[in-house]
Amino acid sequence: MMDGIAVIARALVPVLVLLFPTAIATAGADAEVEDPSFLLRAGAADLANYFPAYLANGYFSTLSTPRGTEPSRSYMAGLMDYTAGDMTRPASVPAWTEIDFNPSAPGAGQAWLDRVPMSERRFRDYQQTLDLHAGTLTTRYHFLDRGRDTAVEVTTLVSEASPHVAASRFRITPDYDGVVQLSFALTLWANHAPRFPLAQMSGPEMEEAVAAYGLSLQPRAPSTPDRDAVWYPGYVQVRNSDGDDKALTLWLDGQAEHGQSMAMAVAIALPEGVEPQSVTLHRDRFRLALDVDVKVERGHSYAFTKYVALSRAGWGGAATDDLALARDAREHGFDKLLAAQRDAWDALWQSDIVIEGDPKAQQAVHSELYYLLSSSAPDASWGLGPCGLTTCYTGHAFWDSDTWMFPALLLIDPARARSFVAFRDRTLEAARQRARQHGFDGAMYPWESDPENGTDETPHSAVVLADTEIHVNADVAIAQWQYYQATHDRDWLKNHGWPVLREVAKFWASRATWNAQAQRYDIAHLTSVAESYNDILNDTFTNVSAAKALRIATAAATLVGERPDPLWERVSKQLYIPMAPGGAHHLAFDPTVALHGGVDFGGGPMSLLFLPSLDLEMSPELRRGDYEYAIRPTAVARASSGSMNMVARVSAADEAGDAAGAAAWFAGNFTGGTLKPPFNVRTESADNNVGYFMTGSGGFVQSLIYGFTGLRIRAAGLVDAYAPVLPESWKSLTLRNVVFRGQRLDIHVTRDAAGVARLTRDVHR
User: Which positions are annotated as active-site residues?
Assistant: First the structure.
């Protein structure tokens, strides 16, 4: 599947350099024009509460570190640890970011940069900048040791232009003469201990085991992932490794535990004209490094660059191939690699969301889009977890990818959006097997899907969700249909979308049961999205979503020349949707379900009836009734403490014509505590550290693309479902260079002379 991408990746850097030198030079020049909405900075005051930034290209990732030089966890898409009894989990590949530095002469002391505690006395003029437009992280400071002052600048990138490649440039300017030491290492992580058989443990057993090891499931310091006691990384066993002290290279081959193989290589570039005093290869079970001693002179700048290439089974080759890639990148130099990176990201940012009149919101838009774009790749088919390429939720794919992330990218970057629906297509057989195991027809997608093979990987402690929180199957179908409606790609629908839609429809037709007494279909033994409501009858969000999935399958069958099962239409029309007496508003569940008033996701499931992707048909009176009953009474502060529910609430207020309410719900994205400084890392809730929460990022972006604009993707096109809304402080909102059915257009929301928000469209010619 990925062989073609691997070939392109190997060739891309030299091709960009040789064929497009003018474009590269222009990209470099443009990068010097700073737009503050694309720049996020950390200073010395942020170090005590440092929440790492995230660098990725959809294929692999790493997290930032305060110095810019420490070893940091790195993960590859779909590379999973399959240890028996445990949950599958992302295998942490060797850390490639470490560049350690000692300003003292060899033997004079151990003042290594990465081992000295950070303080303003030792690290002066500290600043770290995440450039969202270029996809780079730059760290600058003065490192002081024993009277020696070294100006340090570290620039790191995970290449968007050449997806197998990453690099860090370590530039020093000493105020002294002498010999300094550098160490360019790959950290070979040990297997995490303890490891728990989470695939077999009940919830109480898991809590007891965690406590027995002195661990906690409670929130931790910002630099530590929340619930890391159970969301620990998987293991890569390094099978072969070596280096060449003359060629300044390192390489290794490894394998995720009981999983796929991977490889990595490093090529080191010394400053031009600098000959090392010595080079030593260090190799043991935990570290593979090249240690270099060089002579420096006061006031001169010296740039050392570490080029890294990674691959895994199904994406690239072995270590020898990675070594060729790393050496090729070194041959062309860091400036060319950086220029290609800027050019690639500049192309991504041609599609953008522009807010005039609210700099804070504009910066948040760019950070949310950056995290979504960097976590996804075009034309891939690995599942993406709620937190991208990190360990949170053990990297499993949930409905978050179909309902939150996918719609956010669909008009911005259709090729990336296609990767989300491709994962469900590729893992259809696993879902079919699971349906048979549970006694149903069609395909039953898991609550938590392994991103490589699509198997059910829900921990045993949450098995009830795997078996009964089944709305995920409708979410999958709705995303497939949205992709078709946004592209009108009939060949894709026939060969990829339709098989998924057909099998999901079969599942719902077999899962619903006929209630002869009430003359309707019910869906029983459900877990609601408000998950404290378990084993209930007729969850409204599940039932309306299932009905839509069945209608979608009937429509798709006609388009591809297939005959739909008449049962699909019958069930969709007669599936019970709980309503209040007189039809004033929906109910959350069947009237027989006792409400207990617990605090649940989104303040309850009814807000999800306003999800743009669901696009539930309602009369204006019913829509207003739902809003007044289920959404307006909720305090903004309460709802804003979770980042997953804002898009539905913003859309609900917009649809209800409550402009002030929409602005208040949107503002909750900033005041609720889920946007963590200094790098705008979105967390799942205010009081946890489930970071890089792409689900929340997707919801934020959707609230702009579909919420304030009133746009919906339907058979008739990209339609104006309701009048647009513009917060009072905003002058305009523009969706720039979005794509719909092969056509590029700009969509503007501005105010007319009377102050009324109006939507206009400019089609690119």
Answer: 531, 684
